[in-house]
Amino acid sequence: MATTMQTSNLWLIIFSWAALTVGAPPLLCDVLQMLQKEEEQCLQELSKEWKNNSENEQPISGCPGVWDNMSCWPSASAGQTVKAECPKFLQMLTGKNGSVFRNCTQDGWSDTFPRTDAACGYDVNDTTNEKRRSYLLKLKVMYTVGYSTSLVMLLVALGILIAFRKLHCTRNYIHMHLFVSFILRALSNFIKDAVLFSNDVAHCDDHMVGCKTVMVFFQYCIMSNYSWLLVEGLYLHTLLVISFFSEKKVLQCFIIFGWGSPAVFATTWAITRHFLENNGCWDINVNPGIWWIIRGPTLISVLVNFILFVNILRILMKKLRTSKMRGNDMNHYKRLAKSTLLLIPLFGVHYIIFAFTPEDAGSPTVEIQMFFELALGSFQGLVVAILYCFLNGEVQLEIQRKWRQRYLNNWFWMRPALSSSFSNGASGPTQMTKASPLEQGRGTAWKASVI
What we know:
By secondary structure, the chain is mainly alpha-helical. It has helices spanning 2-20, 28-55, 88-94, 116-119, 127-163, 170-196, 204-241, 247-276, 288-322, 327-354, 366-376, 380-390, 393-424, 437-450, and strands at 66-67, 72-73, 81-85, 99-105, 108-109. The chain folds into two domains: 29-51 and 61-120, GPCR, family 2, extracellular hormone receptor domain (Hormone receptor fold, Irregular), CATH 4.10.1240.10; 138-324 and 331-402, Rhodopsin 7-helix transmembrane proteins (Rhopdopsin 7-helix transmembrane proteins).
């Protein structure tokens, strides 16, 4: 009877928790895997205990050891009270440690007291859970809209920069790579959500392999995004500091750095997780030391970008005061600096602020951190597309030039058709008068001047 009640309590906690989560805590497959491991360990310990009793020919009396689907209870004599720690998945969910107890009576094990959910800091009837659920659902809608909007606008911006050959230069090549990094970030987020929030618990073993792969890809995309933001700052700094350099070689180095360095850290993190912390879907970071393999390089890139930001401002102010640069060069650097200098603090400050804050679900700052990283962060791609493409004067001029060229071509192609229709209509009731040689000459001269 007690075991049956424990089972019902377990599923009540799991499914009420599953209904409340949108973001980070353990997945159903994670929970089931943790429980399976704890059950295996418990059965091994109980088996050893039974063997020792058999070898020592000790009579089995009182309450036999049992796994009640949540906790492991060793054998106990009648009248004894046994203590057990809270299940690990509840400790991960609440961030709290607690204990539960059972009495061994003449009739067997008593019910667990206090209730496991209450003792371990998780109250399924707490109204704050409903508020948190509502907040997280709104947050999920916001970042889904943000990433979707950013994805569409980034694809359009990337298509524009690729389509117009006159826009092909080192600066815009770097912008294209930055666009791709934001596109991958949005796609990886959609893929991650689809995998993490799939409640197909019937295929948890197969699910875990794909889930871990998705998490590695997701971390790689996040790091690549920050590395290309750093490349934008490095390129502007290089333009201002170094007078002559091979743009082709610099671009090649930037490409290797922008896509290669995140691959090194993401691979290192995956290998380390596999051997030292191979728990669940790798979406929960229990060991902070392993998590710093990802967080450390990202934080360094943001700090370096901020240092570049300060130095670029200093150099620009100095050059403006001395007026050593030609007008065209200064205008070129000003345009690039406006967008880049806006992106560096805009996309980096929140990461520095929240870098050293605790990430457990009970932390008071976690909701604020999630808002900045998910809701506002999802619109970063849109901001980049607007600054580097849609508000770019060169892009606007090239689009206008192509539009005029196409309009004039269509107009000149239409003129023979119009002339033919007019000449055919001369036999009708209303006839067009033939133009004089002088008027024809004027028309020819006007056409030549337009061309």
